[in-house]
Amino acid sequence: MAFPSFQDDAAILLAAIGSSQRSSTSVRSVLGTWDMINVDVPSRQMIESAAGALQRAGLVVIDDEWGLRPTAEGVRLRRTPRGVSMRGLPTAIGKLLPPLTPDPSVVMPQEIYDAALEDYLHPKPLLPRWLTGLFR
Description:
Elements: H1 6-16, H2 27-38, H3 44-56, E1 60-62, E2 68-70, H4 72-79, H5 89-96, H6 110-121, H7 129-132
Helix pairs in contact: 1-3, 1-5, 2-6
C-alpha cells in the first residue's frame, strides 16, 4: 500500500506528528507511525521534503533537533476528518491539503535520521523504573 506521490508523503507526515501544538514529535516516532500507516519506513529525503513543504505551507514547525509540531492550521486540518482509521487518515488529510511545494532550504541532518532509524529498527529494551535507579 505505498503512496506514490509527494503530496501523499506530506499527508502521511501530518497524520504521523500528532495533533498537539504543545509537544513535538521526534523523527523516531514519525518512522514508527509512518511504517504503521504505509507499511514502509520513509527515507530521510521523504521526511525532509514533506516536512519542508508542510512548513512552507504554515502547517508544521520544525525545531533545531528536528522535532515536528503542527501549527494551529495543521491541527485543524488533522482533526477535520472524522470516522476514519489511522491508516485512512492520510488519504482524508490529503484531500484537505493545499497545493504543496518542497522547500529546498529544509535539510535534516543525516545523523538525526540515522540515530532515529537505528533506534526504530533496534530499540533498547525498557527496564523497570526500580532497576533503572540502580544504575545512577
